[in-house]
Structures
1.
Amino acid sequence: MSSDSISRVAVASMVAGAAATAFVGPLQGARAPSHTTHTIQALRGNSQATQGLSLGTAAMGTAGLAAVASSLRKRSSRSARVARQQAPPSVVAERKVGDLSGALPDCPKTIWNADDIDIKKLPAVKKTAPLIIDAAELGDELQKGKEKEWVAAQKEKIMAQLQDHGAIWFRNFESTKQPDGFREFYEALELNPCLDPIHTSGLRAMEEKKHAVYEAVNKPSLAGHFVGLHNESTFVKTATYGAFVCFQKASEGGGEFLIADGAKILEDMDKDVLERIYKNKVRISVSNLDLNFLGSLPDGFRESASDFFQDLILKVVAPKFDMDLEMIYGADQSNPYRLQAIEHAQSPINKHPVTGQPVWFCNLHNHSRYLRDRRPCTVPEVGMTDVYSGDLSTIPYDDVRHINEVCEKNIHTMAMKEGDVVLLDNYRVLHGRNTFEGDRKHAVTWFESCGEPLSQNQQQKPDDFMNELINKTLV
């Protein structure tokens, strides 16, 4: 998931603190499970792993952590039972109007079509991102004060262009400099907003709830962190479209928005490297919890303690997130007491659900520790993600360097100004963000579809508990 993926692992940090607080009493009567890895399965069926997870920090006192863990544990049994039930049939919902606070449908399920892709015979990419529509170049076609009407009249053409190019950069528009005007823009295109794929992670605060507008990694603590290319997606959920808007560019420079066409990345990649990673698949480690105190415990007690922490994280995290992770000690071979949450193996390539075009649908550029160690990074160890082959072996560094080179070759850097909007097809185009200085206010709204009617399962929609909690405590 995840993304500008910066905060989901904050939960893991909080869980570690809560677990440490609650450890002594429960552990004395704990029985060691018969296995040393556990699978977190919040959803069944197609649920395998999150793809958009990433990094973060949280500052919270011990008492606060214990309270959070207690609250989550009380709710976990009921939530887990609900998650195990078969999802009810979809219902038809009307277009949302007025105040959208608490009214957004959940993000739709990811559409996977990753089997039997012929790497040697990929179709050519005829058009690529971004297409630029500049209000200053439209002349008399765009009358002053009539931007919403112009967008509505051009809706079908704009959405067709989006499918061809993957992303459209709307420049020099005036009405989109404020949240209400931005909402008028996306409503003129009949885009239907939904929750972020990892809304409950607290990755983004909803700064304008009534307009379904999330902040886009503007926190000062993350200004010096480079956000690599990624789709805003998990294995379970993927927003169909996204619209990024600039309300205020970084006051002291930087913070440029980055995009890259996943179809072009695939086209430009060495086919041997591509064949190898497609065959081997990828697994993404989404967090590290260094439980080094376990090493000082006596034999026998240490094993029970290790299993206790695996169980605790399973019970606290699973009911709150759509994850399918294995909790594994020492997978990166750097620390036997490092507990890592690792996704199951998944394809780095997917076919676009509408066009069938194969695309690079993988967050390796953002999540690879090898690459992050060579970039500006301001997150703690708990937030350090990594990417492995499907069998948890190390992806050859030559392959990682090649993938990085191809991704960066295809990056388009966008120095957005106030009112600029980048509309993107989230299945085709990856995005990221450069480091910045000063104050910055970019925002994003995610969409499940274009046009009516909406077909959404409303009965298991995530709540705002974690989103609000983590954004209040995020440094």
2.
Amino acid sequence: MQAAERAITPKSRPHDAGLAQEIIVLYEAEPDLLSLPGALFAGVGRLIDADVVTYSEFHHTSGEFRSMLSIEDDPARRAQGIAAFARHMHSHAFWGYDPAFFGERALRESDFFSDEEFLALPIAQEVFLPSNARHIMSIVMQHEDYVLTINGYRVIGRSTFSDAERDRLEAFRPHIVRSYRQAFQRTLATLTPADRLRIAFPELTPRQLEVGSWIARGKSNEDIATILDVGVDTVKAHVKAIHAKLGADGRLAIAVIAHTIPPFTRMPPLWRIGEDVWAGAARRERGRQPRMS
């Protein structure tokens, strides 16, 4: 084992114009949870000269997670890679992405393994090397029930991440944490009552979500029946089911919950992102075509 069994702590850093610029760009973007991954793909990629950046979010309460890459990939191959990673992630604390282990540090595979040791690892042979990934640097952050992991990768043939690049990512980390928390608040501010109910109570049927959203707008059962073109008794049945699923004891309680419930308490925000976030300009300029899955 190499030197990261030693304590690795953030250092005081001189002014770094590139780092300062990435911090400014991140805050100026004012991302929500939908646009944050794309902003981080671009910023982290430039900051540490990574060929590929990944953004992974794990939700402790539900056990759900999402993982996205800064390049377009084959979903089937990525699913195989995730399954292989799950088999081997407990072989070393570096792969476990435990916030307590990482703290405020940026850690590299080279902090823990020599070249020979890494190449012999089952996780390297089954997950990283088949995807052309050789060098890895990671930071881990926690916000409420969520653990967010940002990884930078370099392809086979490139050098490991340097100490200076590690220091830059460590310096960028608190700004990512702040932006992530702000992204939560921006997203919450734009959610409709129907959005809140849908995310917070996935057991509600589509029709129950419709009825609940109209109740949140102050509509009576008769109004809702007219809007949905159904009988009043049908609406009453939906309202009764909503009461049971929300633990609400009246229409006012449903309305209050719909307007105020923290929607991500039980399930993570499994947003989809569009192709416009896929990064790669820096790679194309270097003429490389890394492959990740």
3.
Amino acid sequence: MIIQCTIFFTKDGSRRFTPLSQVINRHHVQSKAYRLLKPRDVVEAVLDHEVRDWEVVVEPSLASICHADLRYFTGQRQAEVLQRKLPMALIHEGIGTIAESRVPELKSGQRVVVVPNMQGFLLDGTDSDHCCPACKNEHGSNYCNRGKFLGSGTDGIAQKRLVVPAANAVPIPDEVPDEIAVLTELASVSYQALIHVKEQLKTARVAVFGDGPVGYLAAAVLHHVYGVSQDRLTVFGAIPEKLEQFQFATRHLVQEYDFAGGERFPIALECTGGKFSESALNQAIDILEPCGHLILMGVSEERVPINTRDVLEKGLTLRGSSRSSIRDFYPVLEAMKDPACQETLARLLPPERTEIRSADDFAQAMELAASHRTWHKVLLDFKW
């Protein structure tokens, strides 16, 4: 028998279940949305959402553009993928306020981070035991094969009224300002990627490849959440101006470093993706110790050749990670309460936010982000 219930995650990641009434109350809300019809074609649409007792309505206020959004917007995804997923409202990194809630833990007007990865059991209002094998794994629910991901197959945050399971709206601590909280989702992906080597991080040296936002947040999570000190954290990058931002880590330019004769590491993260992922992956393989761990976080649309001979000879473990789940947001938000962490993350923030009042504003912001790959994230300030 499947029991309907509301599911919440506490700060330690444990689940708490609250039974629903025998009769599920349902009603509908309408939402203005900025939907991508085809690459570079954004229109305003009206969506109709059903709201059930275990769901909340969130009004997005501030969002951040991810490279994944840009791949849809510019048409870099495969044609069959675009045909299957569009039309769709983009954006999965964002925060908002509760516009409607029937659960006591979330109040109207409360600030929340939106968790875009909605597992199947949350969508159903059941528990993880009635979902899929991944959800029954303590650290595997981010790979749920029955779930939905905002801005990737289902309408994302670029809409006025977003309906999500209550568990997917994580309260923002009072000490964390909006512009820091909006970085939670991307930081939580790094936290999830590293949780499998959590014990080693207490003493291990770690190498991060990539001087963009993904690499920066991965390094920041290593330093501020997992406690990896500057002398144990090394970042490899290609652009001096970007690499200079990593002031909490040891830094090396890849074009100047001796990967054959340099330091060896037990753990390395590849955070470059795209056309540079081949060199980053193979350089990481070069510097890893026998039985080391290589964590892949950079996304590439094409297949990437790697040095499998050394992977075999060294007995390396390769693990991919691109999404997080609800339990990963809490330790990240807790770390964000620290002013030192906020100071580190603020380096990623742009001088000003981009106001979004129309579909044209949204399309122009996406064009700007696609054409100017600056160090800073692009923040969308929704004015509904």
4.
Amino acid sequence: MKFRLTGLLLFAALVTQAQYTETINSNRPGESFGAYSVGTNVLQFETGIAYGEDDHAFTLIPDRTQVDYQYQVRYGLIVEQLELILDGTFVNAEESLLRGGTVTTGSYSNFQRNTFGAKYLLYDPFVKRDKEGPNLYSWKKENLLQWRDLIPAVSVYAGVNLLFGENPFKFTDEPSFSPKAALITQNNIGRNWVLVSNFIVDKPTTDFPTYAGIFTLTHTFYSRTGVFVEFQTYINDLYSDEILRGGLAYLVNKNLQVDVSGLINFKDTPERWRAGIGLSYRVDMHTDDYVIKDAN
């Protein structure tokens, strides 16, 4: 019995050191990237649609309603720690402006953002914990908040923004290619809480770089349902803002997740809100080769 138990714990340690999980690991419905990848040979699609408005206090600035088509394609490549990501939003927008008692409207469509990049896990605190094995003598120490939960997994991200042609979402003289980088941390707190932080530098080589932070707290319950709250702040010479998001996700099966979410901001020009739905689907081609050594 002792040998069987030891072998089982060793097998569990080998499994949990991989990025791959038995159920889908989605970034939706928040905007932050998690530190962990989807796993090698896993192709994942995350998409959604949202409707919202940007209303301005100044009458000289047009109000805007828009429909956002959000997409993210993720693929685990070569090693468990590496993931390729195509991330963006295509927008259909309509603007209205009141002048002299007459409302004028106009519409346009294009990519608001479109970025291709790679994420790599630098440090995973669970590797050491898995080698140590679970605490079989104290349920409290194994399941409740511990000091070691404050040590996060750490990833880095580097990508390139791809916006071409006459795009109304580009600022004047913005190049078609510009870099983006991020530092990503993730704390798994107990068994039901996850805190993700993204520290982002976007378009640093252009005339208007953006510096942003996204902080996402997620709580899971009933095994298939999770709720999240997210705060985002970004600083740019053209536009800066703070945004609050919230929503929930439901795991339909191990490869499919659906979600609903919304956002508001803290400014009156524009005063923004969004509401949307989405889904994440995983094409699981992951394979593992385990070598279990004798316990001695």
